[in-house]
Amino acid sequence: MVTEGVAVVVGASGGIGRALCDRLWASGGYDRVVGVSRRRPHGWAYDDLRTWINADILDERSLRSAAEQIAAVGAPTRIVVATGRLSGSGLLPEKNMRSLGAAALSEAFSVNAIGPALVAKHFLPLTPRDQPSVFAALSARVGSIGDNRLGGWYGYRASKAALNMLVHTLAIEHARTRRLGICVALHPGTVDTSLSAPFQAGVQPEKLFTPERSAASLLVVMDRLRPEDTGGFFAWDSAPIPW
Ligand SMILES: NC(=O)c1ccc[n+]([C@@H]2O[C@H](COP(=O)([O-])OP(=O)(O)OC[C@H]3O[C@@H](n4cnc5c(N)ncnc54)[C@H](OP(=O)(O)O)[C@@H]3O)[C@@H](O)[C@H]2O)c1
């Protein structure tokens, strides 16, 4: 089998991130799968094909160090940013404007938009100049302005919309030096992870994906992308999502 270099998953400790690592590794299609996260993924096996690097997406020093370690392994042809926050300490999706607060909005923008942009700043320059590559940031359909009919979840929606704009802008700059380099935002579906756990009550069982199913779909989407798709926003089934 011809291998495609190095694959990097940022947020390897998360539900979808971990499933992406396992799937990429099991595919045998990559020389090395590099997981990046703040804490070591549970049961992470060390071998010649798997590397784990400790980094926080909001700490540029750790991202710079991670980039150096990745460069020493090889040029990444797949980079997936699978970090993100919806709720948890100090963060609760706002049901109405009365719930808006500066601290929670800042936290959502930091983790969901600024962090992935900093990852791009340090990791995109590692991609090969003359080979196809894909940088994908996991966004969310609720970040689509055109698709927003329900309202609510102000911080999460707005931070994902900001992420989409950052990815689109990165794609334009990236294409100037890497004609075959693709940057996209992807919606993974509604996936059974700790992020969605408090909000799964109204989700029909057949619409709730396992992390493994979502990861498998996302990898197919990435494999199908063409250079003209760069800067786009796509769902787990390759369908384009309106901005
Ligand atoms: N699950 C869904 O239904 C769904 C739907 C639409 C979009 N998404 C998006 O898909 C992505 C993955 O979500 P998930 O469901 O897999 O969530 P998850 O299981 O909660 O994983 C989130 C990941 O983000 C990491 N993270 C958060 N803040 C970080 C920081 N400052 N530095 C480094 N890592 C940080 C977490 O690391 P720690 O373990 O260190 O906290 C964890 O690895 C997110 O962008 C989410 O918005 C998910």
Task: Summarize the topology.
Blueprint: E1 6-10, H1 15-27, E2 32-37, E3 50-54, H2 60-73, E4 76-81, H3 102-123, E5 133-138, H4 154-177, E6 181-187, E7 190-191, E8 208-209, H5 211-224, E9 233-235
Helix pairs in contact: 1-5, 2-3, 3-4
NADP nicotinamide-adenine-dinucleotide phosphate (NAP) binds next to α1, α3 and β7.
Describe this structure in words.
- The structure is a single chain.
- The protein is α/β, with parallel strands linked by helices and 243 residues long.
- The protein has one domain: NAD(P)-binding Rossmann-like Domain (Rossmann fold, 3-Layer(aba) Sandwich).
- It is built from five helices and nine strands, in the order E-H-E-E-H-E-H-E-H-E-E-E-H-E.
- It has a seven-stranded parallel β-sheet, with helices on both faces. Strands 7-8 form a two-stranded parallel ribbon.
- Helix 1 packs across helix 5 and helix 2 runs parallel beside helix 3.
- The relative contact order is 0.15.
- The model has no long low-confidence stretch (mean pLDDT 96).
- The site of NADP nicotinamide-adenine-dinucleotide phosphate has 28 residues, from helix 1, helix 3 and strand 7.
- NADP nicotinamide-adenine-dinucleotide phosphate binds next to helix 1, helix 3 and strand 7.
